[in-house]
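Handout, section B. The chain below has 324 residues.
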Amino acid sequence: MRLVELSVTNFRSLGDVQGIPIHKQTILTGHNDCGKTATLDAIAFLLGERPLADSDISQFAESEPARAALPSDEDAAEPIAVTVEGRFDLSDAEKKALGIPSSIQVRRRHVEGEGVSLEWLAQVPQNPALRNISSLKASELRSLASDVGVKLREGQPNVKASWTEVLEEHAASAPTVAGWAQAPEHIVSALPQLLYFRGDAAETPDTVVRSILTAKLREYTLREETRQKITDLETDFSGLLKDDAARLQKLVEERCGFDSFSLEPTVQFRPTVSGVSMTAAAPGQRAVSLAAAGPAGPAGFRWRSGRPASSFCRKQRRTASQAV
């Protein structure tokens, strides 16, 4: 998936911003405190990379003017909803895997007093009560079934699973409309990963590149055939540690005077790209290493901390002036 459009409501200084276009290379520019960082953090919230803090809720929320005109009874006020919505384009492989013919819209919402939810725009039952059957309790399912005239089939036990089954069958055949519904797991897992490099974190080209490659490396470890190999290794090394753990357990019991002390080591391999060798060459110059890049990097290159990963270096001002 690739994010191509963003809309934000009630997130920090972004009271109501609709249809921000996102291209493969996008530059956000503006004066201080105009919402550049807020936009990036809103994307992080949309993709589930950061929780919503109290300070993220806009002080200019849409419902504030309405609240000011209402009586002092707070219960009558509309709850503030923070919404970040994205439109995503899918590759041909994703369209085939997800069974979706075009782009999709996904939004993450925080509603005051209700919490956070991830939703997608899809064809949903016209009856709102039929849209989130799986989240209902058994008593709620029975009540809903009575309202829509659904009964258990002969031989079905009177349990939650049975009521869920018959109600979902009913919902599948009911009239539908385009509406927001809880995003299914296959949509959640297909959301892109955000690699967010702030000026105070991305200190060197090596740090940025290693972070990107490590994220991709860990994606490969989730493949079924790779996961099994890693699981086997973790099991083998856990077995090797058993004798060492038993000796350590006995030592702690003796030294600390415990009646008993348990120790169960768990081994987990998390692959990491430990280093990256990078070189770069300006036109007509030999390739040089970027290992020493900094405020005055090698061979006329400079690292600009806080820039996107695609802006690792630039020629010295003198060279740029000559080109002009």
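Note. Residues 224-256 form the longest helix (33 residues). Compare this with the example in section A.
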